[in-house]
Amino acid sequence: PAPALMGFDPAILEFCLTKLGRWHKVWFAQNDEIADQCFKANENILRVPQRDWNICVNVRWQACAATGNLPSQQSNVIKFATPPNTLTLDDLDGAKMDGYRMEDVYYLELCVLNEICANGADIFSMEPKDGFQCEHSSE
Length: 139
Prior knowledge:
The chain is mainly alpha-helical. The chain contains four helices and three strands. A three-stranded mixed sheet has the order 1-2-3, with no helix packed on it.
């Protein structure tokens, strides 16, 4: 199985490298390197060329992850390379009013999961090693 993996890019790359037995500290992660290493580690991550990315693509990927419909996922388990309970609002960059940082998108991803999963609030109190399974609500 290839579970979904979310987090900040350097943490995602470190997670995949660790799974491959090649961990090292990552300060900056290139898209191609993350995609290649996580593919080898059998982890599903969202990587599309930047020109093709938009928030709709992001939310669609999350909906597929939450329902277990990513390629080779086999269940709706989502893992977090950056544990949600370690984030603070101080990490958001409110000064960039004409855009966003990639780090800001992870906050949005967590907010989306919080809203589309009946148990979404659990992501903020779970242990980092635990996988999250979205429970669907009929509401």
